[in-house]
Design the sequence.
């Protein structure tokens, strides 16, 4: 399969992904108005879609597939690590909220 066909497939995927990355941009722009876990999830979404877009651009240039794969793997690792940090942060936020409610209900 040629690089152009792969790039076209990734481009179509990236365009259809606006359902996820546009709300993520809004969450990041909101800053401190959103919980930390939500901002981390938004950063993970943008990292994932950004690495997909960069992969598409690299497929259109004359670079080897191993270099393209390296960029895709680096983007995946970044996305997964941000999502993991968001999950840990969400757990901490839930425990803090439970403690607040427990103190109110005493």
Sequence:
């Amino acid at each position: 399969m040629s690089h152009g066909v792969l790039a076209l497939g990734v481009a179509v995927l990236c365009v259809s992904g606006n359902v996820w990355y546009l709300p993520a941009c809004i969450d990041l722009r909101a800053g401190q108005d959103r919980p930390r876990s939500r901002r981390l999830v938004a950063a993970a979404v943008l990292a994932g879609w950004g690495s997909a877009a960069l992969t598409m651009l690299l497929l259109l240039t004359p670079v080897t597939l191993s270099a393209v794969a390296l960029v895709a793997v680096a983007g995946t690792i970044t996305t997964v690590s941000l999502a993991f940090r968001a999950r840990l942060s969400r757990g901490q936020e839930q425990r803090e909220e439970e403690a607040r409610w427990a103190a109110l209900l005493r």
